[in-house]
Amino acid sequence: MDVDDEPMLFQTSWGGEEEEEEEEEQEEEDGVAHAAGQSCFSGEAGVCGLWRAVGWVYTQPCASGMVLGVVVLLPCALFAYMLLYCPPLDIDLSYSAFEVHSHFSAERFDALAIAVKTQLGSWDRRRRDLDNSESDALRELLLERLGRQRSGAAAGRDKSTEPDLGQKEIEKHKNSHHRADENEDRSWDGNSTLPLIRRRRYAPNYYLQSQALWRIELVFVAQGKGDRNIFTPERLQTIHHVERLLMKHPQFHQFCWKPLEMLRDLPLGPSYCSPPSSLLSYLYPSERGGKIYYDGMGPDLADIQGSLSLAITHPQFYWYVDESLSPEHLSSSLLRSEIHFGAPLPSYYSLQDRADEQRSRFKNFVVQYADILAKQSTSQVKVLYGGTELFDDEVRHTFHNDMMLAVISGACITVLVYVLTSFSVFLTFFGLASIGLSCLMALFFYHVVFGVRYLGILNGVAAFVIIGIGVDDVFVFISTFRQASHLHQPQQRMIYTIKTAGRATFLTSFTTAAAYAANTFSQIPAVHDFGLFMALIVSCCWLWVSVLMPAALCVWTECAFSSLLLCVMLFVHALFSGLSASHGPLSDEDDDVALLSVEMEPDSDAAILSLSVETPLSPPGQQHVGVVSTNLQWALKHLVAEPAVERRKAVLGVFLLVLLLSAGCCCLLRPATHAPLLFRRDTNLQTLLALRSNLSGQGISCPMCSGVFMEKPHPLYTHTSSSAFKFSTHQQTPSTTTSTAPQSSLLTVYISKLDLGASTTLYRFSLNTSTPSPWKLCSTDHEEVSSFQAYNHPCSNYTTRMTVCVSHVYHPYPSWMITSTSCDPRHGWTPEFSFYAASSPQQRLYFAQRRLRPHPSRVCVTPPGCSISSGPDGPTQGTFYAPLPSDPSSAAKTKPSKTFGFNPCSGGACGHPAVRPLVDTGAMVFVVFGILGVNRTERRDNHVIGDMGSIILDPDFDIFQEMGRLCKICKAISANRQLVKPGGAQCLPSGNKLSSILPLLHPECHSLPEPNLLPGQLSHGAVGMHGGKVRWLSMAFESTTYKGKSSFQTYSDFLQWENFIQEQLASLPQSSALQRGFQTCEHWKQIFMEIIGVESALWSLLLSLAICVAAVSVFTAHPLLLLPVLITILGVISLVVAVMYWLGWEMGAVEAISLSILVGSSVDYCLHLVEGYLLAGETMPSTPAERQRRTLEAVNHVGVAIVSSAVTTVISTVPLFFCVIVPFAKFGQIVAINTAVSILFTLTVTVAMLASMAPARFSRPPGAVLKAILAVMAATALGAAVCWVGGQLGTLAWQSIST
């Protein structure tokens, strides 16, 4: 729709237009200069002198060379100063960098964590228990209180008897405590469980490597087709192979854990390294001297069903499997394992002796396992690996690899800039150098000026994004300088370039930096630091491009008229010797490729901005080629701009439909329904993180849960099942009993081959180990099998009969084949021998017969058909299962070991299954009393690294006065089955024997709930003592909250806990100190992290939009120029969010943070187009279709620059798509989508709106800009006042509701 010219909102009078029309009639070479530098030549003398000085500096090669040297040396010098004299800049890749430590959920949990660390030395389950002195002090304090109560109750009775009775009671508890300590100090005894109290880790005079200090975590996950049960022979053999492979490392014995219990296990000698803590200790027992040792070092698989039946009699069994396993259904989708490493290492006398050096040695050793474990996954088993050192190393390795993609991005951008600058090496170098130098300056300001000591993982995105942003500014400067080539005076041309390009790039850089700076208001440290760093790097990039590019343009232009020697001298003077000189593309006389040009209309005296080739004005032989820019400009003008202007109503109609559709899709975008992804789903890191919500808590380690510690060596007795496999109930097939089955034995089938060159390869099957010439034994190459085992009679589930046939019809050599039926006599096939294979999965082998003569059969490991045949399975093609070889390197074994098929539970020798304990699979919620909060007044930042603060204790907390109420609260919470798992209440700390004393102090403490923990597992309940008094207490409850849910779903669980605890505390008397108690959970910190991240990112989006509106209002100074920009931005954001919905994304923290910068990056291109519209009006004569004419000239003016910038931005973010770190990949995808949509809408929608409603004769007078500034300031003040009044009213309303 075309609208008439309306009165300008910010213009003082209409007289300015007549004055501008008179100015347009001046001479050609002074027209543009007067319009662009009006304030200089008609303004004050000081301003004019300043611009003349700037123009002189940037038109003198020597002065420009000095500017280049200063601009290059300054960032390098400041960066060197930062590295040498400032504290090092740490790189924080931890997940905790996203935690909001100023939030009440974080303050609560941090207060408890500080208290526990202060009292117990560590937070997690691997912490040491209370010191003996502290434990005794607590117990003596309770017994003393008990004695006082007994003494008070004895008033009025015989004083000679009752006090003695109370004293006897106290002595009884003391003696029982002493006996309990003696029992705990005894050595390992048979099947006894672990001691409940662990000895202090840091005791002196340890034996070498006798203390389990480090570990590798292994998780084997069943995958592939069929039943996802890890307890199958084929999968167990893979796991056994991996565990043995890790123990075969040459340096394993130097770091392995060597507990004293290993000395009794003879098969482990002479190293006596502890085998992996794994269920395979039951499934692969070893035999020595007629005894069975459950150490997992045996060569053959024992009976699966019997071994699991023995292992499940111990509660530690459940630590290794998932939650779906039950005694009735022995099936698990995964199997856990740990390999422990001991300290002190050789040449160290204790754990404290050079502890950092020991840890460094171990880290250098254990990271070697990463490459080994990464290759062990098969089609049936996925091998996941972790552990503190391995996991951290893989995170750093992943981050480093993703950052290396920035090198690829930079190389692609370098090539593209080289092409778009018309193959100018000089401009390409300095354009990219200005971007790199701005990064150094941003790091200096970030670390030294703002004092930020940490560089977060999100800051790595800057390496990709800044390339696209910086190249945008470079292109605008080059384009503007080239279009001012009609100005013959160099100073006028340079001043015009600096003012025009500087103003345009300042507005776009300001809005982009403001969009990033809006994230500094986020409470999340990582997001705050990311917003600050990106705002600094964008600002520095604009400043350095604005200072460096004019100098580079001056040097390059002047050198085009001088000799090669002069160029070299100038470059040496500018500290850039070594760059070869060539003709510059920006001069009018060079023979390089012209980037942009100005076309002179014959019917007008004024220069009209254009991008066409200037062929008529070039001397013969020096015509500008300009192929890239010319073709791109022609395409933009004739294929994009002119159709958009002519069909502007249709374009706006389609845009309106797209906007409505996008808005509808935005409403359908739902919050995240799963925990945020940090890495790609198929990676080891993310799979392990996802599985941890289904496994036990991080702090629970089970180094002494395997059969080595749980079982005594058993004598190898004769039983009916020792000669054959017995599989678990879900794998058994009906078969006769061993007593009635015929005697069976293993046989080995050897396979050799004969390569006939161009003919078919023949395969020979024989029971003889000898291989006649010219046959050769098959190697393991090409998935071939050299031998396999089978039975000569049906045995257990080995009931599939296979026949080997031979034919002598084919000459000169016979041919062999395998079939599941009888041999076919029609082709001369006669039976050679038969064997029996298994019908259930074990060692899977494929066989197939070739269709061509002489029809040989081949046996292979993979694939189906053995690459010689295709089609469905039949008698001569298919699969059979052979017994698993005891050694992966050799399939030939004629006699199984004594543990083959061993069933330890034959005859009902095993006991009943143990009850499943709790292993922290749910979120652990703590109810804390005696702590008021955390004091962080001395902290200077909100980062997770560094001092966490100190706790604020409640001076009114008295455990003896509140004893009955505490016991009552414990019972009430544990009885809530909706919140707490059965057996999940841990109201008392471990090791103090309080359960027998508390009932004597208060009757409410009778029958307190007992936690169902692993033997040796410490309770999460804790107390804090200071000065002979209990200062705080925390109860722990394993909740029903599943840690794998999304934050938005888990928030309802938090509210249930909060409401229930507040109800319990509200029922207490007003004078009770327990009313100041609170509930906290580490999982609550994580859910609020994501919730606050999404909310703060959306608020940042609104804030950046407000800043953008204010900046564009001042820049355009007209509502009809502001409106197209705002509509374009809203359309871009709506469509980008709609694309996210169409791609199946959900609104999580990563997506929200990425959206917060869309406004700043969306406004760039349409704002450049508006700037082109204003510049076109300064020199164009008045025409009937002036609005459309100015729009087309605006596209001619900035079209190539903004398209080039968009292409470089997209290419710079494409490498992010391949990042393993999901926030990087999501950010890159969103930026690329936003850039593509933004340039599309700018060249279509913004062009159509400018051609329809833009003011035809508006030229942005100074009065209009001033009024726009005043209007923005008034709107800002009004908005701030409304927000303040709303906040005050909300506070008053909340106070009235509370009272």
Automatic annotation (TrEMBL):
Gene3D superfamilies per record: Multidrug efflux transporter AcrB transmembrane domain
InterPro entries: DISP3 (IPR042480), DUF7023 (IPR053954), PTHD_SSD (IPR003392), SSD (IPR000731)
TM stretches of this protein: 62-84, 403-420, 427-448, 454-479, 500-518, 530-556, 563-581, 650-671, 1097-1115, 1121-1143, 1198-1224, 1230-1252, 1264-1287
GO cellular component: cytoplasm; membrane
UniProt biased composition (Acidic residues): 16-30
Domain (SSD) ranges: 450-555
Record region (Disordered): 1-32, 149-190
Keywords: Membrane, Transmembrane, Transmembrane helix
Residue ranges, compositional bias (Basic and acidic residues): 156-188
Pfam families listed in its UniProt record: DUF7023, Patched
PANTHER family reported for this sequence: PROTEIN DISPATCHED HOMOLOG 3 (PTHR46687:SF1)
Name under which the protein is recorded: Dispatched RND transporter family member 3
Organism of provenance: Dicentrarchus labrax (European seabass)
